[in-house]
Amino acid sequence: METQIYKAKQFNLSGLQGISDQTLEMHFKLYEGYVKATNDFNARIAEILSDGKVDQEEMPAYSELTRRLGFEYNGMVLHEYYFGNLKKNGGGDPKRGSSFMKETEESFGSYDIWKTDFVGIGKMRGVGWAICYQDPTTGRLSNHWVTLHESGNVAGYIPVLVMDVWEHAFLLDYKPAERSKYIEAFFSNVDWNVVGERVQGAAAQSTRRARAG
Ligand SMILES: [Fe+2]
Question: Cα(77)–Cα(63) distance, rounded to whole angstroms?
């Protein structure tokens, strides 16, 4: 069985506002850990499968590896979305008339209400993620809380804006009780062009599905 080997992506993000290079360096290392663990678990599962069966004595290890795989995979992928929607000199609000702005208006009534919801989710207690997804079949945006990395993702929905609110994302720069300052810093670095491209990507997928249907 050919096992997919993932490579850690490189992100050039030094000089963000309110999120230090030191935090980013530490965060990249954590991300690389998820990539390594995903590869490692995939290889170990492939090894178990290599003789074409899962023996009774292999079942406990096989089950545990498979259960933990969702955590590692989502830890890898969500960090790529998160780093990918940040940039130096980003921030502000999305452009008026941009696809993301229009979608927030259609789905929430206004961008401000969308943002209130997204920020509110980001302030929720616990470790996890605030994620704005787009439903590729309707184009609608919705904001969700994801616990750890794997609980709460909506199957088939496209992540368009991803904010890490695990404490490691901000603890070198802010106190645990200052998460709202980190969220402000996050918004001052958002790459709205990338967010717009993700929204358009979701729209294109929806069109393809409609045609196929
Ligand atoms: Fe993280």
Answer: 22
Structure tokens at 116: 């209130």
The tokens describing 114, both together, are: 């969308």
Q: Which residue has the tokens 């780093």?
A: 83
Calculate how far, in angstroms, residue 79's C-alpha sits from the geometric centre of ligand 1: 6
Q: How many angstroms does the Cα of residue 164 sit away from the middle of ligand 1? A: 6
Rounded CA-CA distance 43/48 in Å is 9
> Along the chain (213 residues), what's the average pLDDT of each consecutive run of 10 residues?
88 97 98 98 97 97 97 98 96 91 96 98 96 95 98 96 98 96 98 94 66 60
Angle at 12 between CA 29 and CA 196, to 5 degrees: 110
Q: From the CA of 99, how far away is ligand 1's center (Å)?
A: 27
Ligand 1 center–CA 77 separation, angstroms = 11
189: Cβ contacts below 8 Å, ≥ 6 apart = 16, 17, 18, 19, 86, 87, 88, 90, 91
CA of 51 to the centre of ligand 1 (A): 37
Task: State the alpha helices, DSSP H only, in 50-123.
Answer: 59-84, 99-108, 111-122
DSSP 3-state assignment of 91?
A: coil
**pTM for this predicted structure:** 0.94
